[in-house]
Write a structure and sequence with these properties.
Number of strands: 0
Order of helices and strands: HHHHHHHHHHHHHHHH
Strand content: under 5%
Helix content: over 70%
Number of helices: 16
Structural class: mainly alpha
Largest sheet: none
Length: about 400
């Protein structure tokens, strides 16, 4: 069955989303392949000298938190587009939105418990349900609300380094401090051995651990990261309404924003990277990065949007493949989890904990190549990626036509 022509899409949004879905793997690969603390502290695992240190520094200065933030911006913008299209089609925007979020929550919970503990989809679904209330807010107020929520997020993040400082000053807090070390410091050899044994083991043990631990983690993510995520979604709505994410700005305006945003944030991130290295990646310094980077991350995300759209060449080979990857971002995000858990966990190839930090990136580049290779040919034959089609069909309550070029 051939489908009617799809509603017009925004190529700029697909392109930026394509970069984001590739870029987020630069950091997620650490969570797939190493104990949790290695994500923020290179001393925890995976090497912190030479090429490993350089790899950490590049990620921290350019990508860490920025790709997740870019994803959040895009989620807010896409949410607003779906609502506007529902209104244009004389459908109930509330029904369309909440059915999509409800099924996204189901996908996210399945991904969280059955595939990988680092899921973000369930969190986005919950925050997206709140973001609907801001759909009619003008750009200036979206920016103000987004800024206030970002500041609230920074305040919440600041409770962690403050708690660590208090525990350092209190000898009775050693046990609680070790709990923080599992996330921000250097875990004990016993903790590392336990983590390695779990993830190099059978699927059943990993599943049991997720069922025991990750329900509470989802709630903690909602409370702790919720304000920042909602703020980023509102920034994304504002970026769409202002024309920034639509690709409607003049090149000179994108260049001005890029220079302004990165002239502030790049030196700041470089200074924060140096402070961590100079401290020997002391847990207090590493934890202090959470509130500090929260304050400078949004302008750097805006700079990333400007850079991507400035470098884009309409009709260019890489541009079209990135846009195809972005159009299939839901499928590609889930496929990345399936590939990486198969590569790293014990029920697959069992690479978990065996590669140093820099050695993970040939794996990342190979997965990028696969995503860029398969997305465009798939969309030449089908209107949606497979998981996009399933989500759309479930949200609309009927199988949607999929045959025909996107």
């Amino acid at each position: 069955m051939e489908a009617p022509a799809a509603p017009a899409r925004l190529p700029s949004l697909d392109l930026v989303r394509g970069v984001a879905v590739l870029g987020i793997l630069l950091l997620n690969i650490l969570a797939f392949a190493m104990p949790d603390a290695a994500y923020v502290n290179p001393r925890a695992y995976g090497g912190w000298h030479g090429a490993d240190l350089a790899t950490w520094a590049v990620n921290f200065i350019l990508f860490d938190g920025r790709m997740r933030g870019l994803f959040s911006f895009l989620f807010g913008a896409s949410t607003l587009l779906v609502i506007e299209r529902a209104e244009a089609g004389e459908r109930s925007p509330a029904e369309v939105h909440y059915r999509r979020m409800a099924w996204l929550l189901v996908f996210g919970l399945c991904h969280l418990f059955l595939v990988w503990h680092g899921d973000i989809l369930a969190h986005y679904a919950l925050i997206g349900m709140i973001a609907y209330a801001m759909r009619d807010v003008p750009v200036s107020r979206l920016m103000v609300l987004g800024t206030m929520l970002t500041l609230l997020g920074a305040v919440l993040f600041a409770t962690i380094p403050l708690s660590i400082l208090q525990l350092h000053a209190n000898p009775a807090g050693a046990a609680e401090l070790q709990g923080y070390a599992r996330s921000f410091g250097v875990p004990t050899a016993a903790d590392i051995a336990k983590d390695l044994a779990l993830h190099r083991g059978a699927y059943g043990a990993i599943l049991a651990d997720r069922l025991r631990e990750d329900g509470g983690a989802l709630f903690g993510l909602f409370v702790f990261y919720g304000p920042e995520t909602l703020g980023y979604m509102l920034f994304g709505m504002a970026a769409l309404r202002s024309g920034m994410l639509r690709g409607e700005w003049a090149p000179a305006r994108y260049r001005r924003w890029l220079l302004l945003c990165w002239a502030i944030t790049l030196p700041a991130y470089a200074a924060l990277a140096w402070c961590q290295w100079a401290s020997g990646f002391d847990i207090r310094m590493v934890a202090a990065m959470m509130p500090l980077t929260a304050l400078i991350r949004p302008p750097m995300i805006a700079g990333w949007i400007c850079l991507i759209l400035l470098l884009a060449r309409p009709g260019g080979g890489l541009t079209t493949r990135l846009a195809a990857a972005g159009r299939m971002a839901f499928t590609n995000y889930l496929a990345t989890s399936l590939i990486c858990t198969t590569l790293f966990y014990g029920y697959g190839l069992g690479w978990y904990g065996h590669l140093s930090r820099w050695q993970l990136y040939p794996v990342v580049f190979a997965i990028w190549a696969a995503i860029l290779f398969w997305s465009k040919p798939w969309l030449a034959r089908f209107r949606f990626g497979p998981f996009e089609w399933l989500w759309r069909s479930l949200a609309r309550g009927s199988l949607q036509p999929i045959r025909g070029s996107a």
